[in-house]
């Protein structure tokens, strides 16, 4: 009887150990599936065509752009410029939008404004963009000018990090019809501009009324744009890969109106309510329209992503410290 009991206990232990091993293998498989769904970062492939966007009205940026044209030409890589930029030696002008489909990477020489201009020029084409900072702050243009050539060599070798950022699809609805549509990387801003009165507006999230506020304006920011106007207006800093949108009022006439974060898959609607008040509407710093009462702004997560090329192993928190003195005591 004792032998039988011992054999039963042993068989139970074996079966339980099998179950544990099955659970471990299943969790390993699940983990493997989860990691497989994540987009790969830098892919090593032959780079043939580069779009170069340099800072307007800057002689130093233009000089560096010419140096880059020569550098890429020595390596058998074609450099393209958009039609609005001055022609440089060893470069080609893009005459048709179809030519943009041939572009492998975009290099930006300038600040965040030049970077945003390049993003809007590329539109829905998910071309990886590498920003080389020749501006003042440079949150999007993370590569330092002194690191330009080492980082470009890394880019050609497939050694740079590719980071995927959310874009917003922004539409303006007037008289019940969609009038215009834009992509947005940083922020959507609704403000009173030269008008003296506060704006009365209603905020909706997925059809639900969030709040009715009176303020100088309102900002809807992506995680990428959370360190821009949103931060200056008292909004939160969001990690770049956060799936969220920050809604931040500008100088609200209320002690209880505060910034709020909503999921990125929510549809945000902003509607002007004051019958005698117009408002200025901007996307990524570009003045897009003057809105009238009952006009609506519709904000959704775009179907496409933006790909930002950045130096490898660079911490976002180190970027905050170097650019904004984040976490430092006065």
Radius of gyration: 25 Å
Total domain count? 2
What is the share of helical residues? 25-40%
Structure annotation, total helices: 6
Compose a concise summary of this entry.
The protein has 330 residues and is of the alpha/beta class. The protein has six helices and 17 strands. Strands 1, 2, 3, 4, 5, 6, 7, 9, 10, 14 and 17 form an eleven-stranded mixed sheet that branches. Strands 13-12-11-8-15-16 form a six-stranded antiparallel sheet, with no helix packed on it.
Task: Characterize the structure shown.
The chain has about 325 residues and is α/β, with parallel strands linked by helices. The protein has two domains: about 50-160 and about 310-325, Rossmann fold; about 165-305, Sandwich (Tumour Suppressor Smad4). The chain is built from six helices and 17 strands. Strands 1, 2, 3, 4, 5, 6, 7, 9, 10, 14 and 17 form an eleven-stranded mixed β-sheet that branches. Strands 13-12-11-8-15-16 form a six-stranded antiparallel β-sheet, with no helix packed on it. Strand 15 and strand 16 (about 285-290) form a beta hairpin. It is globular and about 60 Å long. Residues about 1-5 and about 15-45 have low confidence and may be disordered.
